[in-house]
Amino acid sequence: MTIIADSGSTKTTWACFTPTTPQSQHILTNSLGINPIRDKEDVIMNAIERGREGLCQVHQQTTSTSFQPGDVQRVFFYGSGCISPYSDTVKNLLQQVYPNATILVESDMLGAALALCGHNEGIACILGTGSNSCHFDGTRIVAQTPALGFILGDEGSGASLGKRLVGDILKKQLPADIQQVFYNETELSQSEVINRVYRQPQPNMFLASLTPFLDRHRDNQAVHALIIDEFRRFLQRNIRNYNRPDLPIHFVGGITATFAAELQEAVMQEGMKMGQTLARPITGMVEFFHQL
């Protein structure tokens, strides 16, 4: 049995399958996110054990057979913050839970590249609360533009889109009707926005939580222009650095799924080559590893 995990800072998605399991019937469950740079060992172990419990429960319901951790032969874990030496902590804890398995722990960016590109060369991008990208040669990441977070970077992400939105609203850069709709729908004031961004924890999550407003009003010309411009900034500041206009650009993540049409429009306007889009990396990961 093989287990694959795609882990962000807020959620980990676990999948398990055997060589004879149809790809459409792989087992999926979720647990808390894991970031070894941020989290202590007990927090990480709790998320791993919750993932195991979820897999056991869903496996029993789906196949009417028991799930035994000792039967797991391979674990592929791709997560945020999973870089050396922090990844060693995750690997050691996974080994305790799955003692007979070969464990591999790598970054979420590599997991996304495998899901999007498979064995082919390409540009892989993650657009979620944050954003990231890399040039993947079909085996490994050979170049990567630093993401730098939502203050210095993360262009095209939910946090950056939300940052652009509230900045343009508060500075009256958007039409008056959209400004009024924003205040009516969100019930946010200038002082509340300032408080949430500068005085409360996780301002990136707050800013990303405003993207549904953009989704609801994407047909408004000014909102549409804001979204397109933000995606073009992502392409200009992150993707053009790879100097590979011949390669397709693939995207994965929640922002990708929500704004796929606008993303494709931005890629075309930049004269780049659009690749495939996925809502969740785990879908492509299961397909990739099912073939190994």
Structural description of this entry:
- The protein has a five-stranded mixed beta sheet with strand order 3-2-1-4-5, sandwiched between helices. The chain has a five-stranded mixed beta sheet with strand order 8-7-6-9-10, with helices on both faces.
- The protein folds into two domains: 2-100, 2-Layer Sandwich (Nucleotidyltransferase, domain 5), CATH 3.30.420.40; 120-280, Nucleotidyltransferase, domain 5.
- It is an alpha/beta fold and 292 residues long.
- It is built from 13 helices and ten strands.
Kindly give the count of domains.
2
- How far is it from the N-terminal to the C-terminal residue, by CA? 12 Å
Mean pLDDT: 91
Low-confidence stretches: none
Radius of gyration: 20 Å
- The name of the CATH superfamily of the largest domain reads ATPase, nucleotide binding domain
Shape: globular
Largest sheet: 5 strands, mixed
What's this model, at a glance?
The protein has 292 residues and is α/β, with parallel strands linked by helices.
Topology:
Elements lengths: L1 E6 L3 E7 L9 E6 L8 H23 L10 E6 L6 H12 L4 E6 H10 L4 E6 L3 E6 L4 E3 L5 H4 L5 H13 L5 H11 L3 H9 L4 H6 L2 H6 L4 H19 L8 E5 L1 H5 L1 H10 L3 E6 L2 H10 L2
Parallel strand pairs: 1-4, 4-5, 6-9, 9-10
Antiparallel strand pairs: 1-2, 2-3, 6-7, 7-8
Helix pairs in contact: 1-2, 3-13, 10-12
Question: Which features would summarize this protein structure in a list?
Answer:
alpha/beta; 13 helices; Nucleotidyltransferase, domain 5; single chain; 292 residues; five-stranded mixed sheet
